[in-house]
From TrEMBL:
UniProt key word Transmembrane helix: yes
UniProt organism field: Fibrella forsythiae
Protein name, entry field: DJ-1/PfpI family protein
Position of the signal peptide: none
Keywords, sorted A to Z: Membrane, Transmembrane, Transmembrane helix
Length: 113
């Protein structure tokens, strides 16, 4: 897990950026969860990571067998291609000025899911 990324996500959350829509793709879920952004929300992640997500983050309601979940201003998706579905769910004239991309997750780089 990239501590700088988790800190950035926490700062956005602490600064009450509710207007900021956050989307995670696949196991990017773990970065949002580590930052505490998903506490009390419904979310999803790749099906092979669901058990780990449920045990590691019991305050998050994990939703199975869906392409994406939107809860408040957070969209989580279950895999790479479902990131497209999640992005299409976003609505509004806003265009974000900041995009954060990370490959960090609880699985080692190069893991094929």
């Amino acid at each position: 897990m990239n501590p700088a990324l988790v800190h950035f996500i926490q700062r956005c959350h602490e600064n009450k950026l509710e207007s900021l829509i956050i989307l995670s793709v696949c196991i990017g879920f773990f970065s949002l969860a580590a930052a505490g952004l998903l506490n009390g929300l419904r979310a999803t992640t790749h099906y092979q990571a669901l058990k780990e997500a449920q045990s590691k983050y019991p305050s998050i309601t994990m939703v199975k067998n869906v392409r994406f979940v939107q809860d408040k201003n957070v969209v989580t998706t279950d895999g790479i291609t479902s990131g497209i579905d999640g992005a299409l769910q976003l609505d509004g004239p806003e265009v974000t000025d900041i995009m954060v991309y990370t490959r960090d997750a609880s699985l080692p780089p190069g893991t094929i899911l």
